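Appendix C reproduces, verbatim, an entry submitted by the partner laboratory led by Prof. M.T., so that reviewers can inspect both the input and the predicted structure.
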Amino acid sequence: MKKLLLILLFLPSLLLAHPDGATPYWYPATFIYGFVQGCWQTVEQNQSLAAGMWPDDIRAVCGCAIDAVRHAMPYHEVENPAHSEKFDFVTQGVLPQCIMEVEAGIMLRNDEK
């Protein structure tokens, strides 16, 4: 009975932690924060990427992009300038999907269907 209780207690966290079943690579928090800040500032200067989004929405897009990178590349590769093309490829490839996801969230928040 105790084992069943423990399984039921931890099962939801195990199922919802990473929907794709993959655990992302570890990255230092300072790197993630710096990426999101730099990405946000770049997008703010070029509003055509995220027209009509609030700053927090743009940060969510940037957070989505770094999450994709964390699933694709270990941190030691990101630090290595020789892998910058792969980093750019991943971020540019996932950016449109991240924008669509955040826009869908905005529509839900605004009760648009």
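Confidence is low (pLDDT under 50) at residues 11-17. Additional entries are available on request from the coordinating office.
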